[in-house]
Specification:
By secondary structure, the chain is an alpha+beta fold. The protein contains twelve helices and eleven strands. It has two domains: 3-73 and 203-384, DD-peptidase/beta-lactamase superfamily (Beta-lactamase, 3-Layer(aba) Sandwich); 90-193, Methane Monooxygenase Hydroxylase, Chain G, domain 1 (Up-down Bundle). It has helices spanning 3-22, 72-86, 113-117, 129-140, 148-159, 176-189, 193-202, 224-227, 250-254, 268-282, 291-297, 370-384, and strands spanning 28-37, 40-52, 58-59, 66-67, 211-212, 235-236, 241-242, 264-266, 331-336, 340-345, 350-356. The strands form three sheets. A six-stranded antiparallel sheet has the order 3-2-1-11-10-9, sandwiched between helices. It is globular and about 60 Å long.
């Protein structure tokens, strides 16, 4: 193994991240990568920049905990649905209304669990629920955001909402599909989503630093050592504070920090650990996740034919993927708005995770074209040895 060549080329990754920091696209990043080669396993980890710039400056570290944003969808909610499918408690082609009877309202009887997982259900992609509750708070003087009542209301409004296109007609990425899927997990699993995921996913996979932060355990009451490990996110205009140890996503905040589309926090090591379990289970080397349904979930569904979505996971869009140009067609990944991403090449067993807090103080400046640059540079460095 020509380690000198690998190390030299990995310097390109650090320089790319440093350039993104210097141009105020991100405050900092933690990157992790793994690839087997010639009976060895190549690994790379790098921490650059700052996890917090205000109210104080705290450097990035490998132990930094990130708001994963929409990585919640594949790591938590999709995996929970996969486990319920494996148990026979949920059927992919069953109507959603089988598990949530109110979902049948307003012409949604034909929408299936598979439709939700492939973003082809026809639901509106997003709704500004936080604005609805802010207006109510201003009128009534009550504190509503983050309460159990607000969470129930968001789920109810989403479940009973109308379609904007017919099921399977188009794949339009959005959050409402996964708010509904989170409700399905809770209805079938008999537990709140965070409890189900902790007991059924994070603890069995030894992901000790992966969790939701419910409002009742918000930043003000987090243990100080835990809070200081968390990367801060936006200086939020409607919450009037820098978000540090509380969920960034506005609708997940309304829902008390626990939602099917966002709310999960984790570290680079836990994200990489999860990805390795995906790879090992795919190849039949691990029983931590059931192989047969996993292989189905990680396969592009062609729903509709032009869609790149697998079940809860994205796949590379040829010539235009955040994964870059080196991941094979048999790869899956996902992005998070806060600046997080995970890509897994199932054939070559390559994992690359890039965790940033790009929305911390500089959200409006960030074009964030860093992901494919980092992915390409890492794979090219690994292949140089």
């Amino acid at each position: 193994m020509k380690w000198s060549a690998v190390r030299r080329k990995l310097g390109r990754v650090d320089r790319a991240i440093d350039k993104s920091i210097a141009s105020a696209e991100i405050p900092g990043a933690v990157a992790g990568a793994r690839m087997p080669k010639n009976d060895e396993t190549l690994e790379y980890f790098s921490e650059r920049g700052f996890a917090v710039l205000q109210p104080e400056r705290i450097p990035m570290a490998r132990r930094t905990i990130f708001d994963l944003a929409s990585l919640t969808k594949p790591i938590a909610t999709t995996t929970a649905i996969l486990l319920l499918v494996d148990e026979g408690a949920v059927e992919l082609d069953a109507p959603v209304a089988k598990y949530l009877p109110l979902f049948s309202e307003r012409g949604k009887e034909a929408v299936t669990i598979r439709n939700l997982l492939t973003h082809s259900a026809g639901l509106k992609p997003w709704r500004a629920y936080h604005e609805i509750f802010l207006q109510k708070e201003r009128k009534t003087g009550e504190s509503l955001i983050g309460t159990p009542e607000a969470r129930t209301s968001v789920i109810d409004r989403t479940v009973r909402s109308a379609l904007v296109h017919e099921p399977g007609e188009a794949a339009v990425y959005g959050d409402l599909d996964f708010i509904v899927l989170g409700a399905v997990v809770e209805a079938v699993g008999g537990q709140r989503l965070d409890d189900f995921c902790r007991e059924r996913i994070f603890e069995p996979l030894d992901m000790a630093d992966t969790f939701f932060i419910p409002i009742e355990r918000d930043a003000q009451s987090l243990p100080e050592p835990t809070k200081r490990r968390i990367a801060a996110t936006e200086n939020c205009p409607w919450r009037d504070r820098i978000l540090w140890g509380e969920v960034h996503d506005p609708n997940a905040s309304v829902m008390g920090g626990v939602a099917g589309h966002a709310g999960l926090f984790s570290t680079i090591d836990d994200v990489m650990k999860f990805a390795q379990v995906i790879i090992d289970s795919w190849h039949g080397r691990s029983e931590l996740l059931p192989q047969e349904p996993l292989r189905l979930f990680l396969t592009r569904q062609n729903l509709p034919l032009s869609s790149d979505w697998a079940l809860g996971w994205d796949t590379p869009t040829e010539g235009a993927s955040s994964s870059g140009k080196h991941f094979s067609k048999n790869s899956v990944g996902h992005l998070g708005f806060t600046g997080t991403s995970l890509w897994i090449d199932l054939d070559r067993e390559i994992t690359i995770a890039l965790l940033t807090n790009r929305v911390h103080l500089i959200a409006k400046k960030s074009r964030f074209g860093l992901r494919p640059i980092v992915h390409d540079a890492i794979i090219e460095a690994f292949e140089a040895g």
